[in-house]
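=== RUN LOG ===
request id: a7f3
mode: sequence -> structure
chains: 1
length: 218
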Amino acid sequence: MKTLTSFLSLCFFACASHMASANVPVNPSLITADTSAIPQRFRVLIPALEKYRGEWPLEFLIAWIKKESDGSIASHTSLDERGYFQLHPDESKALKVDHEKLSTDRDYSIYAGVKLVDLRGASAARYAKILGIDASGEVYLGLTKLMHWLPYGVENIVEVMKKKEFAPDSWDAFKAFCEENKDEIQAGINRKGKWPLERGIKNADDVLSYARSINVTP
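=== RESULT ===
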C-alpha cells in the first residue's frame, strides 16, 4: 500500500511512551492530531494498530474493525469467525494463527487481523493489475474488503469488468458498474452459492464510508 497514509493520533503522550517501549517509531504528528471523532473503544487499539499496520491506512483498519466486531474482541459468529477483524477458521489456518487466541489477546488479535488484511490485499492487488488500476486508493481498499466477504465474488466482478473493458477510476464508479451489471455478476456468483452481491458491496462501502468519516489527515 503506497498511498493514503494516515496521521491519526495516539491521543495521549502516554501512548507514545507505550509504543516506544515496544520499539515502534512514533510520528510526532500522530500525537497532536485530533482523534475526537474516533470512539474510545477504537482509540485504545491505535498503539497495536500502529505497531503492525505497515502502510495500510489506520482509518481503514479501524473501519474494518468497526464493521466486523465493533471493537469487541469477544465478537463471535455462527461461522466461528473471531477477533477484532473476524477471521474465519479457514483464514486462521491459512495464516497459521491461533484461532482461539483471537478472542482473548488484544495485541495478538490485531497482529493476526493485519495479517488477514495483508493476505486479502495481495489478492486484491492481482485483480487491480488485471483491471489496469493501481493497487492504491479506495477502489483497491474496496477490493481488499470484498476479498474478505467472498473471494469468488470479486473474481466474478473483475471478470465482467474485464469483459466490458471497464476500469473503475473511483469507488463510486465501481459501485455503479456493479449495480448496472448486477444480474450478470450475480449469475456468476450463483454458480458456487447464494451470496448476495448487494451485501458484499454494502459491507465494503460501510468500511470505506466510516474510514472517510474519521480520516483526520490534513
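=== NOTES ===
Residues 1-32 have pLDDT under 50 and may be disordered.
The first helix runs from residue 13 to 21.
=== END ===
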